[in-house]
Amino acid sequence: MTNESIIESLLFAAGDEGLSAEQMADVLDVDVQTVQHVIERMAEAFLHDDMRGVTITTYGEEYRLMTKKENAPFIQALAEKPSPKTLSQAALETLAIIAYNQPVTRIEVEDIRGVKTERPIATLAARGLIEEAGRAEGAGRPILYKTTTEFLDAFQLKNLDELPPLSEGEVQVQQEADLFFGRFEEAMGETTEE
Amino acid sequence: MTNESIIESLLFAAGDEGLSAEQMADVLDVDVQTVQHVIERMAEAFLHDDMRGVTITTYGEEYRLMTKKENAPFIQALAEKPSPKTLSQAALETLAIIAYNQPVTRIEVEDIRGVKTERPIATLAARGLIEEAGRAEGAGRPILYKTTTEFLDAFQLKNLDELPPLSEGEVQVQQEADLFFGRFEEAMGETTEE
Amino acid sequence: MEYKVKIDSFEGPLDLLLHLINKLEIDIYDIPAAEITNQYLLYVNTMQELELDIASEYLVMAATLIAMKSRSLLPDHSSTDDEYDEEEDTGDELMHRLIEYKKYKEAAVKLQELEKERTKLFSRSPADALFAPVKEGPLNVTIYDMLGAFQKMTRRKKLSVPRQATVRREEMSVEIRMKMLMKTLHDAKVPVLFEDLFQSHEREELVVSFLAILELMKQNEITVMQKGSFAQLYVVSGGTTNDK
User: Which InterPro entries match (chains A, B) (predicted)?
Assistant: First the structure.
């Protein structure tokens, strides 16, 4: 793959947080100047290619992919169209994080999601699925969120203990036993077949 | 701006939520076929352009921008967390049986596997890969299971028709014969047993 | 150290039978009752000896096989038609179950490949501003939608940590365990009983020691000897062939 292709992949997957030239140089195994040079060329090319909808911007030390300014009205239009889904992916993710970690602050949710979460939280609160649960200790005393009884109703849960466990822990243990036996059998096979 | 540019912007903003051709057609004020046609051309071009790091993929009804497979090692090198745990053999077998026979009850799955299947079903449900699909007729009215849209996403399938075909040939012929004789015997059985 | 862990587990009696059919190169359409029953029982006995929890399904299948085998051993002096049919039916039914199960087992392998391929594709979070919520009307979502969204999120990558060698604990322990085993075997100078190489009966220790032994065998550092099926296993340092 070309450096351009890899850099585009990295910047795309990194999302809104962006990446520094150092981080990219590290994985590409080239020096920082090379990365900077390639990115400058890419940014220029993206900007002038009217088939492309994204450009590369610099924000502090970080490079980020961003949609082109000119296309903002279309994104705005999309944002204003009611989604066919009653809850967006972003809202559902946020709800899951709150449900499994409550009480939890917005910052903590954003830390897990890696993106701003103001709107999803507002949506969930507006639909009565989450509510404030006091304030956390520490700087700024941020608001804590928890799920509501309506949340339980909406998902047909008697209580929070009925949330399905997320880990596959038990399965893992089973596999170890299987692994042991599998290896044993293999070893037996090898010795007897010789 | 070109349709290509706007579509790239929209898909970029939508991230892994993805967008349907209808949603994009709505914003672009063109018909759905036009959008589909443009996207097909874009996907093809992205795939073959070795300067590009992303492609357009389809699952369910949704189009999404995704990084190219070949660049995965570079992204993983910068990732904070390892990839989520893959499914156990038991879970995969259970999922296969559900996927090809949906909607299906746990008992039916257990009949095919020859072992208890409660735990794999719980795991699959917790992963959002299967969901309840009402209840079967008959004694106890057991829960029916089917796969979800997340299942399509997790296995990169456009739709259920894209499931890899079950092994055919000899087995298929055999089954057809079995089916025939099975029905025949059943019919006979019904008359003699009564 | 690269050690690929191959999970070669049995997913129940049908899976075990398929494994045996494969290993013994038996035609699935013509299963010899006696041979398959003997082999099957051998495995189930081993599982019992290893004190692994044997699911009742394995024992039910054992009983079915034994019944099948004993019927097949009966002298065939034109038994009544009824008995003959019964024998055929058990064998046939088992064959059909195996064929049916095999189909899905193969499909599971294909799904696993797709799952693996999928882990190589990444997207990004949807922009915060997108998707206007529908404020009215019923909330048409289920808990599965929420779990699905959560899974989708876990597939995204948060990129930041510079590359660093992450050594997983168990890999480390296998390596250390290999060194320890070599020392034990070297010091002993005589073959050591296989079981004596396991210091504790902690599941993790058993697995790690076992992997270490297998790795040493693979590297031809040790030899495992056995006089016959299910006789005691002895381990000695040094490979089977000394090329060096």
Answer: ScpB_csome_segregation, WH-like_DNA-bd_sf, WH_DNA-bd_sf
